Amino acid sequence: MEKYIVQRASTPGWWVATDNENGMVVQFEHGHYDDTRKVTLLNGYALSSEKEAVKVAAYLRGLSDWLRDNHYEKLYSLTMRQEIGIQIRRERKRQGLSGKELAERAGFVESTINKIENGKWNVGIDILEKICDALGVTLQIM
Known about the structure:
Layout: E1 4-8, E2 14-19, E3 24-29, H1 33-36, E4 38-41, H2 50-70, H3 72-75, H4 80-94, H5 99-106, H6 110-117, H7 125-135
Antiparallel strand pairs: 1-2, 2-3, 3-4
Helix pairs in contact: 5-6, 5-7
């Protein structure tokens, strides 16, 4: 079983992230993680001592870090450029490629890939197609 699981909540526009290992569930509205997060402790956890509160805070920090690394687009409102960049970075990392390796495969310099992945550069379809070819994935629109 995976340590963390993210799934749509029963309330439209909300997500549920579960820390299976530490018995914690976090619900949040899409794009508004910091303002709407609600934490539920499972397995009889109670914040009866400072030690328990510190432990739960550490668990929450771990879950939040994982969410930011793997599901940033669900946490914060993003532009389309940022969403595309996140998808490219996620696939590149999944394949174990560095930014430089992807750039070389796609015929670009590394700084171009960095700008695209960080949502700083408005890319056209031709450039996206080259990046997708370099990653061995298909460009899907809509």
